[in-house]
Amino acid sequence: MPESTDTALTQIASRTDGARIVLDRVSKVYPGQDAPAVEEFSMVAEPGELIMFVGPSGCGKTTTMKMINRIIEPSSGSITIDGRDILSLDPSELRRHIGYVIQQIGLFPHMTIAENIAVVPKLLGWTKQRTADRVDELLQTVQLDPGTFAHRYPRQLSGGQQQRVGVARALAADPPVMLMDEPFGATDPITREKLQAEFLRLQESIGKTIIFVTHDFDEAIRLGDRIAVLSERSQIEQFDTPAAILAEPANDYVRSFIGQGAALKRLALIPVETAVLGAASAAVDHHRIATDDSLRDALDLLIVTGAPAIGVVDRSGTLVGSLTVERISTALGADATALAATRSDEGRLA
Ligand SMILES: Nc1ncnc2c1ncn2[C@@H]1O[C@H](COP(=O)(O)OP(=O)(O)OP(=O)(O)O)[C@@H](O)[C@H]1O
Ligand SMILES: [Mg+2]
Question: Which residue positions in the chain have pLDDT lower than 70?
């Protein structure tokens, strides 16, 4: 007997810290089109993983994402969340259990910020008190003061603030899965950077399974556990961790996406403590970097101060060694070798 939508969704929804999503040869052909917008797309997202889709306009990112909450019905293939076939569930019920931030913020203009965030809890029949408490909690989570913002309308907020409300609204019912379609797309670089930092902090504490679409490769590197670089028809050119993609782009297509400065981008992912440090006595100036800062931060400090060596301090503030440009360069090389070794090991196991 087929499982009821209710039971399946209750079980999925109970996994608020992330669910496993499996797409198996999923295709979409829009009515009246010959070529598929998405062709045989297969991917596994593990619970709590943040996966970035990067690819050019029109390559099928939004279409792929919208098939996961069935705003768009796949033409073929299968999609499961925690082993449940979502194509057998009621689509509107399903959508209430998947947080979704759409490409154009999409707040309801005639509703206050609080009402916007409360949309899904209301549909789920939460009490007034529970809903109000949740709205307050979420506004604080995205760093908007409830007293100031709850009763405003979207047009009375800046673009970046509206984006945060969009994220809060998607989080409202504590869904195990979040789909985010260029959630920070409409913001200036400074606001975007702030939103990214907030988002990283948030994901550390909530650990949802998130699919996140972006045009911005740097955003993908900064936020993603793994990145899928997509080309036309959502073909996966490479699917790996940011460090592995930067160290070993699979082909010219991926290389063109990374753009200039792959080495610098990689430095930002390597913590200072992985470098072989020089003697603490070499750090004669008073410039200091922490072991859990990145090598990119260390390099910036060396360049800005013009110091030949900077001191490295551990969490307790004790000077434990020094870093020079040469040592940073060596660490970068060692990291690439280590990555290559891991990959050939994986190859042997496979
Ligand atoms: N409703 C539709 N009917 C027909 N074709 C569509 C429809 N929606 C999208 N497409 C086409 O499908 C392809 C993929 O579109 P999609 O919106 O998934 O791209 P995208 O990667 O999200 O692009 P962008 O980065 O610009 O948002 C495009 O060629 C688009 O023109
Ligand atoms: Mg899109």
Answer: 1-5, 16, 103-105, 186, 260, 335-350
Q: Which of the listed residues 27, 61, 102 should we mutate to test ligand 1's pocket, taking the one with most ligand atoms within 8 A of CB?
A: 61
Cα torsion for 168, 109, 113, 170, to the nearest 10°?
-20
Question: Helix (H, G, I), strand (E, B), or coil: what is residue 12?
Answer: helix
Q: Are 49 and 238 in contact (CB under 8 A)?
A: no
Buried b / exposed e across 277-290, counting CB within 10 Å, b at 16+? bbeeebbeeebebb
Q: Ligand 1, closest atom to CA 234?
A: 21
Per-chain residues with Cβ under 5 A from ion ligand 2 = 62
The tokens for 290 are 């922490």
Task: For residue 44, list its beta bridge partners.
Answer: 22
Give the tokens for residue 18: 């992330």
Closest CA to 312 of 328, 289, 285, 287: 289
Which residue puts its alpha carbon closest to atom 12 of ligand 1? Answer: 37
Report the C-alpha gap between 71 and 65 in whole angstroms.
9
Sheet containing 76-81: which strands, arranged edge to edge?
A: 38-45, 21-28, 76-81, 84-85
Q: Is the separation of the CB atoms in 33 and 209 below 8 Å?
A: no
- Residue 56 alpha carbon, nearest atom of ligand 1: 25
* pLDDT tens figures, 273-310: 989 999 998 888 889 999 989 998 999 899 888 889 99
Give the separation between CA 52 and CA 250, rounded to whole angstroms. 17
